[in-house]
Amino acid sequence: MANDYYATLGVRRDASPDEVKKAYRRLARELHPDVNPDPETQEKFKEVTQAYEVLSDPQKREMYDMGADPFARGGGGAGGFGGGAGFPFSDIMDAFFGTSSARGPRSRARRGRNATLRVELDLQETAFGTTRELTIDTAVACGTCHGEGAAPGTHPETCATCQGRGEVQQVQRSFLGQVMTARPCPACGGFGSVIRHPCPECSGDGRVRTRRTVKVKIPAGVENGIHIQLAGEGEVGPGGGPAGDLFLEIVEKPHPIFDREGDDLHCTVEIPMTAAALGTSVTLETLDGPEEIDIRPGTQSGQVTTLHGRGVRHLNESGRGDLKLHVTVETPHRLDEEQEALLRRLAELRGEERPPGKFSPAQRGVFSRLKDVFNQH
Ligand SMILES: [Zn+2]
Ligand SMILES: [Zn+2]
C-alpha cells in the first residue's frame, strides 16, 4: 500500500501549494521533536515531512498523483528520505523562513533617484517640437572624492568587525534546533568597509547638490500628460552610483482658438446668414500662418471645412493631423424697418412666408460625437 500523503497532511487532493505549505507548518509545529520528543510523535513527524517533501514539489507530486510513490521502494515506510539521511532541510528552511538573503558586503554605490519636471508648452511647440533649456536642482558626483566619500588622501578601510564580509553570523535557537543566521554588520552597515575620514565636501555621501541646466529636445506631437524619459539625467546615486532618469511631464497650455483631438485641431467660425447664403472667405490664423478659407455660397450651419495636414505633427511618425473648421451661421436679429422689409420680400420671392419645416431624427455633428468618444476615456 502506498502512503496517502494527502491524508497525512490533511489536505484535499486539489489543495494548492500554499494550502500544502500551511498544513505542513501547522503539523510541524505540533509534532516537532523539540516540542514533543516521544518516539511515536517523531515517527509521525517524519511521515508528515515526507508527505510534504512529495506534495510541495510539483514534479514529485505529479509522479505521485500518477501512482508512483518516490518513497515507496524497499517496502516503503518512513525510513528512506530520498536516499539521504535526515530531513529535506532546505525545503524545511524555505517553508519556515522564506528564501535566504543575498550574501556578501553590499556596495556603497547605489543608483540615483529619478526626477520629474513639468514642462509647460503651447500648441505651437507641441505641434512642431521645440528645444528647451531647463534648470533642475539635482545631485552630481562630488568633485573632491569622485564619489568615493573618503577625504582626499584616504580611502575606505576594511571593517574590523566583519573583516569586510559585510555581515555577521549569529546562532539562534529555534524549535528546529540551532539555526545559523547572518545579518548585516552593525559596525559598517553591511558595506564591509568604514570611511574613517569622510570627504569634507560631501560628508561621505559621494555627491553634492547643485543646480544644473539641461538642453532638451522635445519632439513634435507630444501631448498633455505624456512623460519623456531622459536616461541618466536624474540624480547621481550615493557612493558614486549611476544617475537615475529625468522624466519630463508635458503640460499643454490651452489654445485660445483650437481644440486638440489627437493630432487634429478643431475651431469654429461664426458667419452671418447673408454671407453663408452668398458665399465669402475668412482668414484663419493657422499654426502655419494666416490662411484664406473659402466659404461657398449656400453653406449650412454645422458644415465642416477640412484643411488636410494642417494639424499637429504625428509623434515619431511622418505626417500631420488635419485642421477642421466648423461653420456656424448666425441668424440676423434686431432688424430695422428696411432690413425687415427686405427679408419679408425675400421670403415672399422664395415662397417661404410660412414654411412647414423639414423634420428628421436628431442629428449630432461629427464634432460632438468625437467629443463623446474622448469623454468616455
Ligand atoms: Zn566628496
Ligand atoms: Zn563590518
Explain this structure.
With about 375 residues, the protein is an alpha+beta fold. The protein folds into three domains: about 90 residues, Helix Hairpins, CATH 1.10.287; about 90 residues, HSP40/DNAj peptide-binding domain (Sandwich); about 90 residues, Urease metallochaperone UreE, N-terminal domain (HSP40/DNAj peptide-binding domain, Sandwich). It has a four-stranded mixed beta sheet with strand order 10-11-15-14. Helix 2 packs antiparallel against helix 3. The longest helix is centred in the N-terminal third of the chain and has 17 residues. The radius of gyration is 39 Å and the shape is elongated. About 20% of the residues are buried. About 10% of the residues have low confidence. Bound molecules: zinc ion (ZN) (2 copies). One zinc ion (ZN) binds next to loops.
Keywords:
single chain, 377 residues, alpha+beta, Helix Hairpins, HSP40/DNAj peptide-binding domain, 4-stranded mixed beta sheet, 3-stranded mixed beta sheet, 15 strands, elongated, binds zinc ion
Largest sheet: 4 strands, mixed
CATH class of the largest domain: Mainly Alpha
Q: Give Rg in angstroms.
A: 39 Å
Query: Globular, elongated, flat, extended or rod-shaped: what is the shape?
Result: elongated
Name of the CATH homologous superfamily of the largest domain: DnaJ domain
Strand percent estimate: 25-35%
Number of helices: 9
